[in-house]
Amino acid sequence: MRAGGGRGAGLLPVLLLLFVGSGCSALIYEIVWFQLLEFVIGSSAVSIAVLLGTFMGGMCLGSLLFSRLVPRGMHPLRVYALLELGIGVCAVLLTQVMPWFDSLYVAIAHPGASAVLLRAVVCAMCLLPPTLLMGATLPAISRWIETTPRGVSWLGFFYGGNTAGAVVGCLVAGFYLLPTYDMTTVTFIAAALNAAVAVVAMGLSAIQHAGSANAAHLARPLSPLSSSNPPTEPDLASSEAGDASPAAIYVSIALSGMAALGAEVVWTRLLSLLLGGTTYTFSIILAVFLVGLGIGSSVGAMLTRSGVNARLALAWCQIFCAAGIAWTAYSITNGMPMWPIDPASAIAVRFGFQLDLARCCWAVLPTTIFWGASFPLALAAAAAGDRAGQGGRGDPAKVVGRVYAANTVGAIFGALLFSLVFIPSFGTQQSEHILIAIAGASALVVIGRSIFHAASDAAAAGSMSAAVFALAFAVLIPSAAIGILKKYALDQVPWELVAWGRRIQSQDSTGYSKIYMGEGMNSSVAVTEYNGKTLSFHVSGKIEASTNPEDMRLQLMLGHFPALMHPKPKKVLIVGCGAGVTAGSFIVHPDVEKIVICELEPLIPQVVAKYFSRENNDVVSRKQDGQFISDKVEIVYDDARHYILTTREKFDIITSDPIHPWVKGAATLYTKEYFDLVKAHLNPGGLVTQWIPLYESSEPAVKSEIATFCETFGNAVVWSNDSGGQGYDAVIMGGADDVKIDADALQARLDKNLLIAGILADSNFKNADDILRTYAGRAVDLTEWMKGAAINHDKNLRLQYLAGEALNQFEASAILDHMLVYRKYPADILKASAAERSALKQAWGMEAAPSTAPANGLGLPAGALRGPVPSTPPAAAGDNAPAP
Fold first, then answer.
1. Which one is the CATH code of 15-210: 1.10.10, 2.60.40, 1.20.1250, 2.20.28?
2. Alpha-helical segments (H) within 391-537
3. CA-CA distance, 49 to 328, in Å (whole number)?
4. Which residues, listed in sequence order, are joined to residue 3 by a DSSP beta bridge?
5. What number of CA atoms fall less than 13 Å from residue 399's CA on the CB side?
6. Per-residue CA distances from 688 to 248, 598, 619, 881 (Å)
7. Which pLDDT tens digit goes with each residue over 821-841?
8. Whole-prediction pTM
9. What are the backbone angles phi and psi of residue 365, rounded to the nearest 5°?
């Protein structure tokens, strides 16, 4: 017998729990597989689109193909068990074959976004086998359910349980498993969960088989309703007035999926600005989105059981979604940024998480509940049409597969269109208007079909008035929502949100004016000016570069330090364009013949860097003194790691200034494997420099960054960029060979090129001694300080969790103080005169300075580079912002 009211119905709650476990493991896999494949194909918007399209496309195909490939005589529970077992096996195998795919891809790939097809092939080979099985699980179990209101309601509960499991998987993986274990271990945990689900499902099938008086009846899942079903339960076909055309349902649920995934893309972009784009933030946003879908699915399942007109209920859900999108749009950009709270004041990281959770629920939950309710209502409406058309003899797996596939196809198009087209072209605010229009269109499709059916079928004429009433609101509410947003909401995301992000309330914007704000394919960026003097470049809700003295020093250190210490650099790679100052530093070095700038977001070189043309020597316009220098500068729009992985070129200098490691995805540019790639692409004698932020960080996070770098570059040297004598950030340098520093040769190069000397003098690097005074230690000396540091590997990305917990901490000065305790005079790598050695030892606090010691290049007495640790962070620290 099929479940719907007989003895098999007693097993339904247990099966619901199995779907919770299935959803939990599926979400864990999604997180792990996306991270693993991003190491291979990159993390650009195009690469993420390929990943998402392949993952969801596999589930779509699985739902469609199941009814065609799996015989209807097989017991649904046994099929479900085999599918779960297959998913776990595929996941385990993937951990073993992924290195092979990595090697294969590197062997034939080339840099840039043009190799999209190859990326799709790699993703398909890795993801299609398990995702095909995932997509087949709900159609498989649908053959055990009668397509009556009670039976279809259980399908809605299964979908909701699967979503609830995904919530658990999202939170457990994001907040415990991945911060604690490596990705291989987490994969085995998820596979064990699949195996447990399979064992229980197989056991349930055996129990039901043994307890049935007619075992042969179990193998006929499409038989008529058994006599054990309540005789008073209505057939879905009768509750839907016998409309045998479910095409409108498929179109409507596809549009619903498009709006839902499009909204997730838009809202994730905006909420990551407001909350801070850590890996924890993304887990919270996804979890809240899934919670809404799960709640809605349960509500929708109960509605189908009550005998409600599923078609019109589906239409009303889309109408309320249109209103909900307007609510969320207003809340995120006009409401929550004005809440009188300062998330950065959270003493413990858990308080920040609680606040983020509350804000996500406030903005996102109402709309997602209606999207969640749409799926079981669409199932009920489609099943009713199928029963009416097939006389009750149709295959429920086919109906479920089609509804699921339609929803998934819509979701794929929504994610791709909004991330790759709508947001870059129209911005997030206008994209939300498009979302409202899509939700309205989804409602109109169903209502239009209902009106047509009511007009042509006398038996359905009674539903005409309800359909016409819904039609009026399907036009009125989306139109009103768009009109209200245009009148009372901003036409584009506030530039302050892009500039200050989570600190929008606490940041004093007095004196700042917007110069530019744009929303690109990968990130939102802004350029501001402070009191007509200081320019700042903002991305992801924080200042990434500026003309503030501390930031200019850092950008010049990343470029000029390796260029001056390398005997003759010819080819240079810049990881991250930023304001272009670091890239522009190499323009004035006569030996440099080629400069490659690798940038993920096209808006940054094309628009942002041009505002800093005076500081960056007009490097992005490829002109110097009016002369075109295109042969010297090349801009590559790609994920830097993917570029280094696939390029055959080698460089004399590679300098990297990635975004802060607490931003999700940035930690991939701080892993041991990434530094190994960098070292492999250095010419003999080549040097690499990497930015190390001390502000908005913790000592364990900084230790992890430096220790991981030193795992690859055992000759690493750290240079400190202080702010008024206080810790701020640092540059770590390593080499393909031993790093040697000749003070006389360094000074001679400055004396020979007065242009370079003048640029550095503007940042208080007046001579070689001023450069060497920033020395803060090297790997061999810092070994004891780094003891116990978490090495950041591709397989664990430990840094993104350490840094994500530390973005509200201001320990820069304390971190530098603790590091400098272990600093020793580098006698074996530094060649200097006796007078220079004495001056440097005084500056580094290694010997007493004369009472009349001259000021050093930092404007401080020699030996006084360090100052008292402030009880509160200076105005410039943390956000790189110039003090008012």
1. 1.20.1250
2. 396-417, 423-456, 464-488, 495-500
3. 24
4. 145
5. 34
6. 59, 15, 20, 27
7. 999 999 999 998 888 888 888
8. 0.88
9. -60, -45
